[in-house]
Amino acid sequence: MPDVEYEVNNIVLTVSYRDVELDLKKIATNLVGARYDPEVFPGVAYRMSKPKASFLIFASGNANCVGANTVKGAEEAIKNLTEQLQDLGFNVSESETEVQNMVASIDFHRRFDLEEIARNFRHAEYNPEVFLGLVFRIADTNMAFLLFVQGDPVSVGG
Question: Which molecular function terms from Gene Ontology are attached (predicted)?
C-alpha cells in the first residue's frame, strides 16, 4: 500500500487573559482587519495574515484562535495578538491556552467499502441517505474520523 498522506487543516485553541477587561471598540478601531458589530456578535473578529490565524476576542479577556495548521503557528499568532494588545495599552501578559480541536485530512490512496466497515466495527455509523461518509468514533475520546469511499478521511476532535 502506498504511503498514507495527511495534513493538519485547522487547530482551535482557547485563549484566556486573566484579570483584564478588554475595550472591544478600541481593539476594533486600532487593529487592521478587525471587525466589531455588538448588535450582531458580542466579540471582535480579527484575522491576521502572519502567522495565519483568526481570533474571536471577548471583553472578558477570553478569545478563540482558529485557522492555524500547527500548534506552534497558533502559539505564534497568540503571542502576536498579545503584543498588539499590549501596544494598545491593555495589561495582558502570558495567556493560558488550551487546544480544543484539531482537524486533519488523510489520504490512504485506496478505496473503502463503507458498508463492510460499518458492519464490522461497533463505533462506525454509516447512513448514506443522510451523509455520504462513514462516521468512525474512537472509544473513550472525543475524536472521530469521517471516512469516504475514495479513502480520504477527515479527523476531527481534540
Answer: DNA binding
